[in-house]
Amino acid sequence: MTSKSSSLNKVFADLPVTIFEAMSQAARDNAAINLGQGFPDDPGPEDIRRAAADASVNGYNQYPSMMGIPELRQAIATHYGHWHGLKLDPMSEVMVTSGGTEALTSAILAVVQPGDEVVCFQPVYDSYLPIIRQAGGIPRLARLQPPHWRLDEDMLKSVFNSKTKAVLFNNPLNPSAVVFPREDLELLARYCQKFDVIAICDEVWEHVTFDEHKHIPLITIPGMRERTIKVGSAGKIFSLTGWKVGFVCAAPPLLRVAAKVHQFLTFTTAPNLQAAVAYGLGKPDEYFVSMRKDLARSRDRLTKGLESLGFPVLKSQGTYFLTVDLSPLGLNESDTEFCWRIVKDYKVAAIPVSAFYEQDPVTSVVRFCFAKKDQTLDTALERLSDAVRGRKR
What we know:
- This protein has 393 residues and is of the alpha/beta class.
- Helices cover 39% and strands 15% of the residues.
- It has helices at 10-13, 19-29, 46-58, 70-84, 100-111, 128-134, 153-159, 182-194, 234-237, 252-263, 271-281, 285-308, 335-345, 374-383; strands spanning 33-34, 94-97, 117-122, 138-143, 164-170, 198-202, 228-233, 246-250, 313-314, 321-325, 348-349, 351-352, 365-369.
């Protein structure tokens, strides 16, 4: 029989195993602590989990509305109105998806046609580029770099042009853990308006910000309300990453097309989880403030521990992650080599940030997840105690 492998879809057939899966498998193979993949090691808020259980036993378990149950769509609109002053019509401007990745896929496939250029910022999350290319789009890659990872005028000038159809913008930014200030958002908004570009905003980390850093949705910047698709994730808001409940918020002309894509991807999302997320979004402000404080404490614990071992830590402004810039250490290895060494020799898994670049990668930065129990972090630090001294030139 003749092999058909050569005729398979090249966009996906040629993709390597993701670094997240590779490092997680290495963590399993080496009995290592996994500080690579971004998930907490606790079960999540009990009251929200109980709400899901109750909805499963006593609620409706058949197909819910494709757009999401009305209670959740209303809860999303109310939540964003409260936190960001964003007024949304829950029936025409809000849609529920099976996770943030599906929300982004629906948005990209709704907007991008063959030949369209799409601006992306490296480091770029691994799902963006394959979906853009599957839609026939052409990624235009801008390069962010440590320690500040900020946008600037020259960078935007180099990638925006008359062929630009969309920009895919992640804020807060995984993996660099930066929360973009209003100045950067206004600069990006100016270019979107100048070139008539739609912004697809991956804002799944919107509630996970620290210190005085405040998340500002791009859709709230003047001139962006009608040209922005905002994506959120209950999994990130409530540390329930396995639930896969995402949100899409956009003006009706944009949302209608994204909904048509969603119809043929997952169609709908588990109703018991939707009911529980609606309950969670209505929790008082103190819950969200406390959640951030707890994560900030874990961030500080890992930061201080790594710094005491000689690691140059870049301050995390948001997300579950912090990054370490190895370049001042004079190690004779790249970030990827460092990550493979520590998972094998020190039994701790991390992620090389170069994996988030397709062109001209930054090769000295490593990402660690701090959304773990104190004991997990402390054990990882003990294991890493000689990782710097053991590799000096």
